[in-house]
Amino acid sequence: MKQRPAARTDPGHTPPADQGTDGSCPACGTTDVSQTGLLTAHRYRLLLCSACGTQFYVDTQRDSADSASHYQWESYKLGVYNDDLVRRSFEDRYRELLEKARPTAGTLASVLDVGCGIGNFVAFADRLGMRAIGSDVSPRAIEEARHRGLDVVSADQVADVVPDESVDALTFWDVIEHVHDPGDFLRAVLPKLRPGGVLFFETPDADFPVRTALLRLYRLTRGRADLTGPMYYWEHKIYLSERGLRALLGPLGVDVTHVERQTSVRAKMQREFSARRSVKGRLLRLTWPMLETVFRRAGRGNKLLVIARKRDESISPSTPE
Ligand SMILES: [Zn+2]
After folding, report:
1. What domains sit in the chain, N to C, each tagged with a CATH number?
2. pLDDT digits over 166-195, tens only?
3. Contact 259/305 with Cβ under 8 angstroms?
4. Are 90 and 173 in contact (CB under 8 A)?
5. In the structure, what pLDDT confidence band is assigned to residue 103 with cuts at 50, 70 and 90?
6. What residues sit around ligand 1, an ion, with C-beta below 5 angstroms?
7. Among 15, 12, 236, which Cα is nearest to 136's?
8. Number of helices (H) and strands (E), helices first, in the chain?
9. Given CB 3.0 to 4.6 Å as the disulfide criterion, which of 2, 51, 54, 121 pairs with 275?
10. What SS3 class is residue 13?
11. How would you classify the pairing of strands 44-49 and 33-40?
């Protein structure tokens, strides 16, 4: 039986020892956070930041490693991202976003794609004539990407292999939600981006109405009506709101220039739902295309797509001369 991704480690860097449990919001830093009551996989407690609306998990058993194996996640990832329809759908999305940035971005001749998986974006950027390099934490994904002839390194090699301020664009597609501390993640990779360079990323939107409605239902029924499964994955450590991501990026010297909301690529969702054998899974598979159309027309979606620009006087390089 196919499974949903089971475990995914922080794609950009080594996971911090302390799993974001000091009680402050990982996006805006305020300590004004509250319990939502949602406990996922009997272990991960969802907190809500009252100031920016970002939601994030704290691990109640942080002394033991995340339970499931990497192999399940890797098999899932290799399967989904090898699917031609999924790949083409993502490429349409990338192309649109790149076009939106172009008028103000200046030259976009090189890109570092963090958490590149098997390298679909790296391959796409290569075809556009960009100098593209990817990084990932999964040896199996790296091997697959290299087998495709792509320039991909392991996450811990990035600091040495990619010179500071050397790339025009930095991308992470569905990656930042997998880290407990997105600030740490960004501080590790932003020095690679040249001043004035552009950041592109996609991440779940904390404010997606279906997400907030299902969470409200869960809270009202004290967990008896739990339909949160398709909207809350414990592998996602943080659900950023637009306010949260602006609060996160601003102090790091990055200005958000464009935010849009989109639903997940349809071909990917269909694959995910078809892997679920439950009644809920079948229901979702049947209703998602309709829901997706409704939300798309309303300009809403479960994903935030973001374009941001690194200020010229941004944070200093990670390896001072
Ligand atoms: Zn916050």
Report:
1. 71-205+252-257+265-310 (3.40.50.150)
2. 999 999 999 999 998 999 999 999 999 999
3. yes
4. yes
5. confident
6. 25, 27-28, 49, 51-52, 54
7. 12
8. 10, 11
9. 2
10. coil
11. antiparallel
